Amino acid sequence: MTLIAERVRELTGARQPFVHATVVRAQAPTSAMPGDDAVILADGSIEGFVGGVCAETSVRAAALDTLRDGNTMLLRVLPDGAASFPDAPGAQVVVNPCLSGGAIEIFLRPMLPRPLIGVAGATTPIGAAVVTLAGFLDLEITEPMAYAGASAVVVAGLGRDDEQVIRAALDAGVPLISLVASRTRGAAVLDSLGLTAEERARVRPHAGIDIGARTHQEIALSVLAEIVRELRASSPEPVAAAPTRTAIDPICGMTVVIGEGTPHAVVDGVEHWFCCAGCRDRFVAAS
């Protein structure tokens, strides 16, 4: 396993958002080769190799955009005045005046943590069906009663500690709690908890979309369908990344993302930011 592949596995296991960038095509004399890859974290840091420092500047800016909207991107980085690759609809093209020749196409895939779902009563027939179907839907199941950060909790204990589970999920800030129960029993459970109006609005006392479900698997389908519908309706930003600060390199005219490692210089009390150390040194020498 390559170092980047291992890093991808590690970040995925830690539920950290990142972008996996892979060089698809490259034209000489660029230093990147097809198959080179890297990960870009939410703070803009890059681990791996997808081209030199100037190419990284373009990749960093585009990768942070994909983290915000969750969409994949084919990024085409061209030097100023270079002949382009054959047309590829849907590609985002950036002209990088500082690129030392050649051209690169890089596929950017945002890797966002899977929605986290709690299931109380996972050993009941309905709970077990929810767990199985959740895996098919690429939802991640959290440990029992460890509900912090969960998008939803399914309460399928069928009367076993339902009130305790609901209270724990509410206290953990879970926005959607799906109680598998009849309408009569669900209302009784909620009444016994003495919930506020805000808390009660987060609980579905008779979980699921009405599809005429009869079997355990069909009930699980109806419950998860409701959860998926509400997850999609809320449509939050995939990653609440820190606001991106940018500046124009006064030498080459590139837009650069300002970060901890971005080359910069202070001249006559004014800060200037650069795509690479070479542009910075030229600017300082001419000042």
Please give a structural write-up.
There is one protein chain. With 287 residues, this protein is α/β, with parallel strands linked by helices. It has 2 domains: 3-112, no CATH class; 116-234, NAD(P)-binding Rossmann-like Domain (Rossmann fold, 3-Layer(aba) Sandwich), CATH 3.40.50. 33% of the residues lie in helices and 24% in strands. The chain contains 8 helices and 15 strands. The two termini are 48 Å apart. It comes from Paractinoplanes rhizophilus.
Summarize the topology:
Layout: H1 3-13, E1 18-27, E2 37-41, E3 46-48, H2 53-69, E4 73-79, E5 92-96, E6 103-111, E7 116-120, H3 125-136, E8 140-141, E9 152-155, H4 162-171, E10 177-179, H5 183-193, H6 197-201, E11 203-204, H7 216-234, E12 246-248, E13 255-257, E14 264-267, E15 270-273, H8 277-286
Parallel strand pairs: 4-5, 7-8, 7-9, 9-10, 10-11
Antiparallel strand pairs: 1-2, 1-6, 2-3, 4-6, 12-13, 14-15
Helix pairs in contact: 3-7
Summing up helix and strand content along with how strands pair, one would put the structural category as alpha/beta
Strand content: 15-25%
What is the first-to-last residue Cα distance?
Answer: 48 Å
Please state the overall shape, judged from the principal axes of the Cα atoms. Answer: elongated
> What's the CATH class label of the largest domain?
Alpha Beta
State the domain count: 2
Could you list the spans in which at least 5 consecutive residues all have pLDDT below 50? none
What percentage of residues falls in helices of 4 or more residues?
25-40%
Could you say what the CATH architecture of the largest domain is? Answer: 3-Layer(aba) Sandwich
CATH topology of the largest domain: Rossmann fold
CATH superfamily of the largest domain: NAD(P)-binding Rossmann-like Domain
Biggest beta sheet attributes? 6 strands, mixed
What string gives the helices and strands in order? Answer: HEEEHEEEEHEEHEHHEHEEEEH
Number of helices: 8
Question: In order across it, which strands form the biggest sheet?
Answer: 3-2-1-6-4-5
Strand tally is 15
What is the typical, i.e. mean, pLDDT?
86
Radius of gyration, in angstroms, nearest whole number: 25 Å
